[in-house]
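Bench notes, afternoon.
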Amino acid sequence: MSTVGKKRSTRSGRVASLELPPGKLEQTLDSLKRGDVSLRLALCVLAAIALWAVTCSWAPPFSFREGYVPNRDITARIAFRQADPVATQEAQRRAAVREPVVYKQDAKGLQLLAANLQHALTAIAAANAVGEVSPEIWKQFAPTTPPSTPGDPAQPAKPAQADTEQQEEEFQALRAAIGGPMGLAAIEQGVTKALLRYEQYGVLERLPEDHGELNRQEIAVYTPGTPKPFLVPVSEVLLGDGAVLERRLKESLPTAAVPPVFRWLLPRMKGTLEFDEQATQLAREKAIAEVPEQYKYFEPHQVLAPASKPLDPLALNILTLEYREYIAQLGWPQRVERSFAVFGLLATIFGLSGYYFYLHERRIINDLFRLVILLVGSIAAVALVRWVSADPWRAELIPLLLFGMTMAIAYHRDVALLLSVALALIVVTATGHGLGEFMILMSVVASAIVQLGHIRSRSKLIKVGAVSAIVALACTIGVGLLDEQPLEWPLLNYATRNALWTLAAGFLITGLLPMIEKLFGVLTEISLLEWSDISHPLLQELVRRAPGTYNHSINVASIAEAAAESVGACGLLVRVGAYFHDIGKMLKPHYFSENQG
């Protein structure tokens, strides 16, 4: 072979042409440039954002529950206030009582009364002596003499002549005060002036007792057609013993005319004010509506819940108000700082889980549908935990158990344990219940997962729930005692509730099993048992068409199952495969020797 014209390579050139394999960092960077890898990373980032939003990770969680016994006094971090319904009701009651009672004024009776008085005075002015006046008319003006009691030294009897003389003197004094037409006009003007305030404000014979004690100083009066009531002092309208009326008559009438006119007017002065219950009620309702809500104020470092005392609904309400006010005053730097901390935790969980999948369970990351289902299921489980973890449910075990058992059925128990630990960490961070709650969650979920090796009957899942319920009861009591919670009804109630939720999860997963198998494309031993049923239509058709092949398949199934069990494989899967491995022979059964005569 001729080598003319070819350049012989030197040793140094051959060494330089050699390249070392790329390192781990270079391989990682090259992988990130691939579109499928970038898509999966983007999905994980979106899932982390969804978990951040579902758990409200920008704010610290509210971790107190009813019945929890704090080990130390719980104090206020900031100043806040609490609505005081009792004080508000008392303030509304005082406002309603202070609201003046509303009356409607009708002055027609007073105007008619002045006309009747003028008529009576005209009759007196026309007479020269008391005997010339009608006794009925004079009786209305004459002074009343108290009756004498026989034998009573305090009331000596008076002769009739003395009474007649006194009445004549009163008559002449009144007649002199009237003094003709001009005097009558002056008396009429004086009476009109004296009654003017009563015509404006009204007459109230007495103040009802049921109007309250705080509004007895003034009332609200309106006349039909006026836009709104006006306030009137009670002393201006209350008739009583007539002291105000007598004072007003003295200011507008001659002195001699005051007593007889007063004696005529007082018994005839009737109330002109009518109590308006509807207007009063509306005014009181308006006053009540204008009363601002009353509050109790709490200062920073004030004790909200004392140590060694179970939290009752009242204490929880106060702690909730303090928490909401604290969150409302939380600044953006604190929110961003906490968000970054949560994202760091989520990134660690996603990174470790992804690395484990890359080493041991690549089908999860290779199959985009499986990855999406896993991420969506994780978000849904955390959202359900967030929803049902508060009082009075406290059912966070149900979503975690359903998720963990689903992963154990769909993949392997080690994958289910890894994902359950990851979700339990996220849940504890979101709820703020600490290490004790994490121990309870993981103990119960792990006890359920390790029992899911072989599911040959639907009752197996219920048994798994029952055993895990006993674990939940014991772990809840144990963790509570470690947390210095007294062994009393609140702790026992919480432990019993966790056991019941765990048992309920066993029943739920039993009903969801067919859906899990279809969604993840897996076959449990329950489904394999259904396929191995001799009455299966396909096997019955094989018996009818190729009985020899059917017997051959039964024999192979028995031998293969025993061989598989001996090496630790799934014997049931091998037996079902053996049942159907020659199913195609039934199309041309006579081509095969076992079906020939």
